[in-house]
Amino acid sequence: MTRIAFLGLGHMGLPMAKNLAASGHDVIGFNVFPAAVDAALDAGLAVTLSAQAAVDGAEVVITMFQSGAQVVAAYLGSDGADGLVDVAPPGTLFIDCSTISVEEAQEAHRIAGIARHRSLDAPVSGGVVGAENATLAFMVGGSDEDFEAARPLLEAMGRRVVHCGGAGLGQAAKVCNNMILAVSQIAVAEAFVLGERLGLSHQALFDVASNASGQCWALTTNCPVPGPVPTSPANRDYQPGFAGALMNKDLGLAEQAISLTGVDARMGLLAREIYQEFAAGAGAGQDFSGIINTIRADSAAA
Ligand code: NAD
Question: Are the C-beta atoms of residues 58 and 92 closer than 8 Å to each other?
Fold first, then answer.
């Protein structure tokens, strides 16, 4: 049994913390937002009144926040509050599961390392359903030793745990994967709208492409038209799923990484532009496959 401080009990963090507690660990949660603390209490999780109280005596500190700025601020301390790395005894394992930039993740590793802690970046994919069902995929950056120490905890919250390399490389894997996903979801949506204009039925295009070289997750799982894949968000009016706002956030991190590395990633940057527009409108709360409606609306009258 490991004593774990779990900070950030939002849509993802609360079910993840619950799964850790259910697997027999001593989990103490905290969230800066009081309503989230109440929800955690209602869910039967032990909570504290401050992050510092949760971290005091913990062997492992897991964070699941919205942004890298929040992670760095919590590690270092802000608004007069002690930094988590100063409260925790040396050698504590810090695992950040938030989706943040590679640079911010490396900064968090540096801060933890200077305070003589161990650290991992371990962003996830799989969404709230994956968090609830403990079927998340973890992409992990950090040393072999820290990865092996964390593995049983991550396996209590997920189904697939991949060690991607050193500090920040979990975030690098996440940003690259989601850039592929964004570009392929747009490509699939454009193909369906083109097929409509050419008189091709959705089912016929699906039957061909899903068994040919156009096959991809955006088509066979997240099909952007209702019918061919009954479980895809298109069948429930594009309720997420994976919201356009979150895809836009991840593409913002991809854009930063592209700019830092100087890669000629024109498709990735165009996907960022398209999803930025989508997320600024009705698409913010829709599944990102709803981009097909924008493509239809923006197409010239037939
Ligand atoms: P959320 O906004 O529901 O939860 C984050 C929580 O962290 C908030 O309740 C916030 O109050 C809390 N918080 C912020 N700073 C804190 C601090 N210093 N101490 C304690 N609590 C603090 O967000 P979410 O949907 O749970 O997502 C969390 C992370 O996971 C994000 O980085 C997101 O990009 C990533 N992610 C989300 C999904 C998804 O489907 N929701 C999927 C994959 C990855």
Answer: yes
